[in-house]
Design goal:
CATH superfamily: Nucleoside phosphorylase domain
Structural class: alpha/beta
Largest sheet: 5 strands, mixed, barrel
Strand content: 15-25%
CATH class: Alpha Beta
Number of domains: 1
Number of strands: 10
CATH architecture: 3-Layer(aba) Sandwich
Radius of gyration: 18 Å
Shape: globular
Oligomer: single chain
Strand order of the largest sheet: 5-8-7-6-9
Order of helices and strands: HEHEEEHEEHEHEHEEH
Number of helices: 7
Distance between the termini: 44 Å
Helix content: 25-40%
Length: about 260
Amino acid sequence: MPVPLNPGKYREPSIFQPRDFLGYMKKTGHLKDDEKAPEAVILSYQKSLFDFVVKHHPVRFHTGYFKDHLAYLEETGGRVAIVGRFGIGAPAAAAMLEELIAWGVSSFVSIGTAGGLIKGLNPGAVVLCTGALRDEGVSYHYLPGGGAALPDETLSDALRAAFDSAGVPYRPGITWTTDSLYRETQLELDSVIELGAITVEMESSALFAVARYRETPIAACFTISDSLAELEWKPEFLSKDTNAGLEKLYMAAVDALRAQQ
């Protein structure tokens, strides 16, 4: 069966929108008009990174609906915020992105870990995402066709400049986005590598599709946390190199988003 089940949906409006949900939150007192949306947001999926930022950088937490997830970065005057602790995977990331766009956030950088698919991508290596193969379900409800979902070029260039300015080596490349982390097969790996993928993760293609549909710029970058480049899985999620890579992504994301304001 195809996804979506009825492709005619692309011609139809949504029954309800993210702004309708936020309107409900305002009506019930969970989202107040006097606490404004930041101009830009860093989306983070690793609790360790979110906790690191909160501990080592001056932040102010949102006090309403987003209070457990959004911290304004005081070093940016609150114009940039980091959002985390909302789960992983395409559906969770897409829902958060939709709500933040409806709230008024105007640009995004998604940062997180990814599995390396080719040799030479070691733990902590930095990858700038140039496109995402769509092997999840969310993106097909926003964009027809099966071509790769793409990030915003201008914002991606700002990330490149941030890495270059900080002297951080990085590898540009395509990612494979899949919902099913425990059903990745050698057959799939061979096919996506042939299409140019160098990493695998769970969010990017959905985020790019939502952002394109909402006409909002987003870029993405990863640090390598595990490898599927050989016949065995090699996890390094908790290594110092992986954590150091996440911190590099965070600093570059802040710089890139500030440069766009």
